[in-house]
Design brief:
This protein has 276 residues and is of the alpha/beta class. 34% of the residues lie in helices and 20% in strands. It contains nine helices and ten strands. The model has no long low-confidence stretch (mean pLDDT 94).
Length: 276
């Protein structure tokens, strides 16, 4: 029923504002750029606006040039009546983009987080899905629409990122079946992997070295912590660092069950991952 409601939302409405959470990652961006294939198919009007720029490593993705970053001048235009918000469990996570949405707007909320607050007028929430990208793939399948290359590549990016390169326990048979469809649509896994995981700038490599030097083990070696301090993160080098995936390095230590990466910029931030 939720899937059918989402499909009807896309079919019946037009002129969408489309967004994801602040600091958009591969799943949020990939899901949106994948969905665009459907909107183009139905000749829908849309605007993609994010609070923050996408990660630089995602610049290879087709349609990424359609993404705009919020600025105050956008509020001069009338707010949007229809919005599609993807991979966002709490509405305040879209940042300043919320200023572009009418208070009584119709919202399609697509997400895989169990903590989603169901803030949409239509909610497509699939906690059993590995990623929001997997949900977008299921929309294509239910509608019987062939995946174009750009959409397939974008969905594959989201799938790869949120399954930890198909390593996490959310890598289900459904994930591999979807990956097969995406590859048949022309996705090259080697190309995507090179762009996502083997395309690191020197600043990020320096930061990883700093992180590794701070790792400490606790609770008999079951818990690992590492940190990057504010002095480094606010330096010219630190501002160019992408710390996504850093928390996996202390987690990879033999015997570690839970790892914490603590970042100390102007506002404290921590990442946590457990071995499951």
């Amino acid at each position: 029923m939720e899937l059918n409601n989402a499909i009807n939302f896309i079919k019946e409405k037009d002129d969408f504002l489309i967004t994801t959470h602040v600091n958009p990652d591969g799943d949020g961006v990939g899901s949106i750029l994948g969905l665009i294939g459907l909107l183009k198919r139905f000749r829908k009007r849309y605007s993609i606006v994010f609070h923050d720029p996408p990660q630089k490593k995602l610049s290879f993705m087709e349609r990424i040039e359609e993404v705009r970053v919020f600025d105050g001048s956008m509020t001069r235009n009338a707010p949007y009546d229809n919005a599609v918000i993807i991979d966002v469990p709490h509405l305040d996570r879209i940042g300043d983009v919320a200023k572009l949405i009418k208070k009584d707007a119709q919202i399609l909320n697509i997400d895989h987080h169990v903590s989603n607050e169901l803030y949409g007028t239509s909610n497509l929430i699939e906690p059993s899905a590995s990623s929001s990208a997997e949900i977008i793939g299921s929309i294509f399948e239910r509608m019987g629409i062939e995946l174009d290359h750009a959409s397939a590549q974008a969905i594959y990016v989201g799938l790869s990122v949120d399954t930890g390169r198909f390593r996490f326990n959310n890598t289900t048979p459904e994930v591999f079946r979807l990956a097969e469809r995406l590859i048949k649509a022309g996705v090259r896994p080697d190309f995507v992997s090179d762009k996502l995981y083997f395309n690191t700038n020197i600043e990020t490599t320096i930061a990883l070295g700093k992180l590794l030097s701070t790792i400490e083990l606790h609770n008999g070696g079951r818990v690992a912590t590492g940190y990057l301090d504010s002095e480094f993160l606010n330096s010219d080098i630190g501002k160019k660092v992408d710390t996504e995936g850093f928390v996996n390095h202390p987690l990879a230590i033999n015997g570690v069950e839970v790892a914490f990466l603590i970042q100390e910029p102007e506002i404290g931030r921590a990442s946590c991952r457990e071995r499951v």
